[in-house]
Specification:
heterodimer; A: two-stranded antiparallel ribbon; 48% helix; B: 224 residues; mainly alpha; 2 strands
């Protein structure tokens, strides 16, 4: 069963036929991480563009 | 004359305007956007606690999106300039020069202008195409597990572990799509990109914007 520290990557269910757990999908606990990745990109890009724009203004 | 050149309508455009997106392509974009947002809402709102009957709207919208994407692929390959969206050597060179310029303090050669789409737009399109095609392929398979007007459900066409991986791909691709949509909307709202956002509503950019932001050889909008 694959998991990160304190976080599951996949969802499992118990098979009605017994045996090992059944993979049923991605873990929805990861949803905030994907939203956070989008937000992080936006913030970083906006900062880099702001700094680059300020440097361009100063050089002119 | 390439299709990119034919995108200029000298008869219909006001002076100083370059047609960037035909009406059919703008309609496609906004229909696809509506489908993607509907699919994301019906997928994730119930997951985060807003319970409602989501499955019918979700799969029917998915079928509509599948049809739109197929139409887009056929149109892009047959009627549009397919290579305008393909990452090429000039994009690699311009990207490298841009990075070198930032890291090297301005001593690197200046990057060239892009064609109709810049390198990052092309990479974004490639990424979102992979995600959407993966979601569509897995989603269409999942239709086999529900009753529709055309067939009765049959979950036994695949083994349990195979269904598991299909749901894994669908779920991860859907969550990654959230990230991609956030980034896309961010760029659409940036003031330095408003000419592109306007062009997806109005269909045109000004000639000044065209000459300032695009290599007129790579995107030859003027008829010769």
């Amino acid at each position: 069963m694959l998991s990160g520290p304190g976080m599951e990557l996949f969802r499992y269910s118990t098979s009605i036929y017994g045996g090992s757990d059944l993979l049923i999908g991605a873990s929805w606990d990861l949803l905030p991480w994907f939203v956070a990745a989008g937000a992080a990109f936006i913030v970083l890009h906006a900062l880099v563009k702001a700094v680059a724009s300020r440097r361009a203004d100063q050089s002119h | 004359m390439s299709v990119s050149q034919a995108n200029v309508s000298t008869a219909a455009s006001a002076p100083g305007r370059i047609r960037r997106h035909l009406l059919v392509d703008r309609v496609y974009h906004w229909l696809m956007a509506a489908c993607v947002l509907t699919l994301m809402a019906t997928a994730f709102l119930p997951i985060i606690g807003y319970k409602f009957e989501w499955l019918g709207l979700h799969w029917s919208t998915g079928v509509v999106l599948s049809a739109l994407v197929i139409i887009h692929i056929v149109r892009a390959v047959v009627w549009q300039d397919f290579w305008a969206m393909m990452f090429d050597g000039a994009d690699i060179r311009n990207g490298w020069r841009r990075i070198a310029g930032v890291l090297g303090g301005g001593h690197a050669p200046a990057p060239g202008l892009p064609g109709k789409y810049n390198g990052l737009q092309k990479l974004y399109h490639a990424g979102i195409a992979v995600l959407v095609l993966a979601i569509i392929a897995t989603g269409l398979l999942m239709l086999l597990k529900i009753d529709t007007p055309l067939w009765r459900r049959n979950p036994y066409v695949l083994a349990d572990y195979q269904w598991g991986w299909i749901y894994v791909v669908h779920g991860f691709a859907a969550m990654a799509l959230i990230t991609m949509v956030m980034i896309h909307i961010y760029f659409a709202l940036r003031p330095d990109e408003w000419r592109l956002t306007r062009s997806m509503f109005r269909g045109w950019i000004t000639r000044r914007e065209y000459e300032e932001h695009h290599d007129t050889q790579r995107w030859a909008a003027d008829e010769t």
